[in-house]
Amino acid sequence: MLESPVDVAAALAWAGSELGSPVVSSGTLDGGMTSTMLALRHGDGTESVLRLMTAEPWRTHGAELTARERDAQLAVAATPVPAPTSLALDAEGVVAGAAAHLMSRLPGAPLREVDDAAVLAMADLLATIHAQHPQQPFRTFQSWAWPAKWVVPTWSRHPESWRRAFAVLAGPAPAYEPTFLHRDFDHRNLLWSDGAISGVVDWVETSTGPAWLDAAHAASNLAVMHGAGPAQALLDAYAAVAAGPTDPYWLVMDAVGYLPPPGKAPMFGRVEQLERLDDWLHHLVGGELPAQA
User: pLDDT for 170-215, tens place per residue?
Assistant: First the structure.
């Protein structure tokens, strides 16, 4: 079944109407695996960002996802967490045919390289996020390492490590203190300006769960994109500012979550990224850090 087209022109008109100033220009922002992300400039000189939930399967769940992002931004609006401000929401996609969320545009851009100072800043911000206590708890986190994924990848150089990881996840989950989670916290969802983090974006997966799952997700992304060295440094930095030691269960859960469902291609297309994931999982279940770290 073909997807119905999204009416971007109608969405832009709606954004202008909501802010009381028409959109005079728009451009696509980088990223946006689930959505079309548009940077808007309005006639009065203000800027905003428009999320259109255009990619499946997220489009089907767009109402829930965009409403959750709106609620998360409202929850941290009066806190030290530098999140966008929610400006308007069409969760049901009445205007454009897909869920639309209009929000403020924050200054800055993602980092191309991650150094020691950036890792420390990430850990501090993550601790700040976890210190928040919304009046209404968000949904309990969802694992992205469902059992259908527990198949040793054909490209692995450490197949026994994947089997050990699956055995870990087959056991009971450890107890945890329910914590406010970003749930998709990683360096690609951070904006930087003048050497400091100026924004954390993409709040559609906000949840309640174990704090270390957020740290694990940030570490997995660093491992895949930049190597195991920065990933382990992030975990060490977070351990220094967070209460309580980590449990390998959450680290393993996140790494296994990057495996594709049966019959699907891996989400990382480059060979070196798959090798880094393979090495990182191997490290998490007791192997040595890879040489490139």
Answer: 999 999 999 999 999 999 999 999 999 999 999 999 999 999 999 9
Local structure of 97: helix, strand or coil: coil
CA distance 272 to 125: 29
CATH of domain 8-104: 3.30.200.20
DSSP 219-238: HHHHHHHH-HHHHHHHHHHH
| DSSP label at residue 102 | E
Query: What CATH superfamily classification does 116-284 receive?
Result: Aminoglycoside phosphotransferase (APH), C-terminal lobe (3.90.1200.10)
Region for 80 from its dihedrals, namely left if φ exceeds 0, alpha if ψ lies in -120 to 50, beta otherwise:
alpha
Q: Hey, what are 9's tokens? A: 């022109």
pTM of the model: 0.93
Spatial CA neighbour of 118 closest among 44, 195, 189, 172: 195
Numbered ranges of CATH 3.90.1200.10 in the chain = 116-284
